Amino acid sequence: MARMSAPALPHESTVQTDGRRAARERNRLAVVDALLDLYAEGNLRPDAQEVAERSGVSRRSVFRYFDDRDDLDRTAIERQQQRVWHLVEIAGVGEGPLEERIARIAEQRVALFHELGPAARVARLRAPFHQVIAAQLEESRQLYALQVEFQFAPELGALDTAARTETLAAADAICSFETYDFLCTRGLDPAAIAGVVCRALTGLFAGSPTGHARKPGNRPLE
Q: What predicted TM-score, i.e. pTM, was given to this entire model?
């Protein structure tokens, strides 16, 4: 019987290359996560020294893993989107009575934007000067608008074309990050912001022939 040969061991140079690649990826993520932490603390434009101190990577190495500062910002925004992807979906989108759909989308948007907030603010600051970030931002806005359209399809479907277009635009604005961010500047906490969103959507769809909305005096998410 022929003897089976032992499996070939990886060449030393291959092991070293794989090790360097893994170390590079760890350092790259450490820099990105440090940047996101600084964003979350309100520092939307930290310098290399601040990022280095937070990440544990040398100052000289901070930008060695990225093409430039725009590439670092773009990667950080992508990383944050990955972190919050589980919050993007709306459970039972378009299903149930109007007041329940209003409460669900208000709760979902507040939870999502609370986590996404710092990176979302950076994206809006950088978008006018960075084509890739602008494209990512527009893609997110289109997704959010589509969610609103599906969530309120029964009410929108009962309107004529012009009224439908205007009502959808208004609902999308009410549920947008820009509205959330503005309400944050007014000192409102997440529960209060969700309440404002519910009231605004209730007022918008109050005359809908397809169902009854939550009365403006009721506050959800207490």
A: 0.72
